[in-house]
Structures are given as structure tokens and as C-alpha cells.
Amino acid sequence: MTQGASVIDGKAFAEDLRARIAVAAAQFEVHAGRKAGLAVVLVGEDPASQVYVRSKGKQTVECGMNSFEHKLDENTDEGALLDLVERLNADPAVDGILVQLPLPAHINEQEVISAISPDKDVDGFHIINSGRLSVGLPGFVPCTPLGCLMLLKDKLGSLCGLDAVVIGRSNIVGKPMAALLLAESCTVTIAHSRTKDLPDVVRRADIIVAAVGRAEMVKGDWIKPGATVIDVGINRLPPSETSPKGKLVGDVDYASAVQVAGAITPVPGGVGPMTIAVLLRNTLVAAHRNAGVAFDESTL
Ligand SMILES: NC(=O)C1=CN([C@@H]2O[C@H](COP(=O)(O)OP(=O)(O)OC[C@H]3O[C@@H](n4cnc5c(N)ncnc54)[C@H](OP(=O)(O)O)[C@@H]3O)[C@@H](O)[C@H]2O)C=CC1
Ligand SMILES: Nc1nc(=O)c2c([nH]1)NC[C@@H]1CN(c3ccc(C(=O)N[C@@H](CCC(=O)O)C(=O)O)cc3)C=[N+]21
């Protein structure tokens, strides 16, 4: 079998970014007289979320920042969670606040996100920050789409004039991804579950970002030869004899796509590690802004 595509190594890119963050975090500590700090709030016992929260905490500390983890019981009521968010908003040691999603069904996610100070909203989910992104003002950009954009620009240089198709229109991935690609002067199409003839729509694209949550949905014969494919999906297949814990796959059928694409991100080791590295980047940016310490954000 011939392999056409070059593999985009998100894990290595993220390691490099974290190394630069660590240098800048040490400089911040000298200037501000304190470390930058990230607070992560987890409600409930979802095992996948626990894994992410643990690796975020570890990488935060490795980059020379403080990690404050708040684990609340599954049955915590919305009022108690809002009280915690208020305390974190007021805490000068906390620069960034991340409330792990999804929240239990009895809690209104939008209420909780709106309660986070926009200046500490390192996830970029607050409507103030999504509004800033949509009109082109500086704010915080959601970590996963910003990580995807960094990989695309590293691979392709200018994206100006390229046809981009984003599959998925969620507020945390699809919509902000489309806004970022538009700001780079791509011609952007947003596809979703009601899109007609999805394979034909995808075939037009020079850039494909798949953020669907359907294991291996995008097939190689949907892809224009040479296109760049960014696979955001994180799907765990049922356990099998070869993978007792269940194999992790993306939204793209990697085996067929790698034959046709020009470049492609793997799962794992593609977009996922970038999400966490960008979270740390956003936290350090927040720290400088909140402490009034000058910083050239374009260096990260
Ligand atoms: N690597 C990382 O760091 C991250 C990975 N993820 C992963 O990315 C994926 C997407 O996440 P998220 O955006 O939160 O998911 P959502 O479930 O919020 O959104 C999924 C989107 O895909 C669309 N969709 C669903 N089925 C189809 C279909 N058959 N054809 C076309 N479009 C379809 C939906 O359309 P409609 O709006 O019409 O329902 C929706 O817009 C998941 O696998 C998630 O685990 C998420 C965040 C971070
Ligand atoms: N408020 C909030 N912000 C988020 O950014 C957020 C969230 N809630 N809820 C869940 C999703 C998902 N997410 C991932 C982060 C890292 C990997 C990651 O590092 N993945 C590794 C593999 C990890 C593994 O092996 O399980 C990889 O792709 O190589 C994946 C997914 C952030 N999310």
C-alpha cells in the first residue's frame, strides 16, 4: 500500500509549544512575583474527563504554572457551582478557569459559562469571547480550533483563498473553527447533520476539519487528492481482543484517507495534545493581561 499523506505530528508540535510556554511562564513569575494559575473544575466521576483533568494538571505544573483542581460531587447543585466560579473569579492567584464539559444534566451549562469572568475564560466559551472572535477583536479563542489553526498554518503557510470545509457546528469546535478560517480568508463551508450530499461537499475542500463525533465517518474517497485533513474526533471503539480498553479513533477513516490526503492528523497524537497546550498558552496570556505585565502574545 502506498501512503500519500504526510502525517502532522500534533504531539511533537504541542511539546514544542509547551517548552516555549515554560520559558515565558518563568519570565512571568520574575515580573509578576507569582506563578500563573489555572483552575479546573470537574463535576462528577466521568472516567474520560478524569483522565483529561489529570493530564491538564500535570502539564500545567510542568510548564511552571499552578494548577488548582476542584472536584465536585455528581449531585452538586447549580448554586454551589456558581458560588465556586464566583470565588475563582475573585481569586488573584487564578488567571484561567476551565469548567469541564459536559456538566450533569441538572446543571445549565450556559449559565455556568456566563458566570466565568471573560478575562479568565481560557476556554473561550463565554459569549463575550465568541462575540470578540466573530467581529475580529482580541479575546480568548477556544483551544481546540486554535490548535487546529496552528497546525494548518505550520503545514500550509498562508491559507488565503483556500476552500475549507468544517464538518460540525458546535459552539466549542465547529463554529469557532469556521470563524478562524474565515479570518484567514478561506472560503468556508460549514457542514452538519442536515447537509445534503456530504461526500460531494467535502470533495471540494483543500482543507477538511472533521468535528462530528462519529467514528471513522469521513472516507478516503470523499477527499480531494492532496487536501489537508484535520481530524478532531475522539471516539472510543468497543473493546476487542487486540484492544481490550477500546481503540481510540477519529472522525476520519484514517486507513483510506492517508492514501489520498496531502497531510493528515492522526488520532491519538494529533489535535488532542494541541488542545491542552493551547489551554496553557491561553492561561499564560490571561496571566499577563490580568497582572498588567507586557507580553508579545504572537510569540506563542
Ligand atoms: N481533540 C480534542 O481536543 C477535542 C475533541 N472533541 C471531539 O470532537 C468531536 C466533535 O465534538 P463536538 O463539536 O463537541 O460535538 P457535538 O456533538 O457538539 O457536535 C457534533 C456536530 O457534528 C454534526 N453531525 C453529527 N452527525 C453528523 C453526520 N452524520 N453528518 C454530518 N454532521 C454530523 C452535528 O450536526 P447538528 O448540529 O446538525 O446536530 C454537530 O454539529 C467529538 O468526537 C469530540 O469527542 C471535542 C473537543 C475537543
Ligand atoms: N471545558 C472544556 N474544555 C475542553 O477543552 C474540553 C472539555 N471541556 N470537555 C472534553 C473535551 C475533550 N478534550 C480533549 C482534550 C485533550 C485530548 C487529548 O489529549 N487526547 C489525546 C489522547 C488521550 C487519550 O488517550 O485518551 C490524543 O488525542 O492524543 C482529547 C480531548 C477537551 N475538552
TrEMBL record:
Residues 142-290 form the Tetrahydrofolate dehydrogenase/cyclohydrolase NAD(P)-binding domain. Residues 8-123 form the Tetrahydrofolate dehydrogenase/cyclohydrolase catalytic domain. NADP(+) binds at residues 168-170, 234. Its EC number is 1.5.1.5, 3.5.4.9. One of its GO terms (molecular function) is methylenetetrahydrofolate dehydrogenase (NADP+) activity. Coiled coil: none annotated. Pfam families: THF_DHG_CYH, THF_DHG_CYH_C. NCBIfam families: PRK10792.1, PRK14186.1, PRK14188.1. This is Bifunctional protein FolD.
